[in-house]
Write a structure and sequence with these properties.
Elements (H helix, E strand, L loop, with lengths): L11 H7 L10 H14 L4 H8 L3 H8 L6 H10 L18
Amino acid sequence: MPKVRIPTAVTPEFQKAQGLIPPAPPIDLVKIGQTLRQKRKAHGLTLEDAARRLNISKGTLIKIENGKDVYVSTLNWILERFNIRLTLKPDTEPEQEWF
């Protein structure tokens, strides 16, 4: 019986070979959190002050600043208050049919 190599991780190369849709690159939540923390501190705000002004829990703000997963709508709303914008840019690779 021939040996079949099963990848331990689904790599982009494996996906391409199988004709699968490659995943979108992940949003760097850690970098977003670091940027938010820098802006908050530049405004002289403590976690408590910022959370109160944003009308969110201190725990939610801590999660965001530590790069943890939160609702996109919550993240976007908070970033807007600190004049931080998330932008999408097109992928440099040609589009593939995905349906």
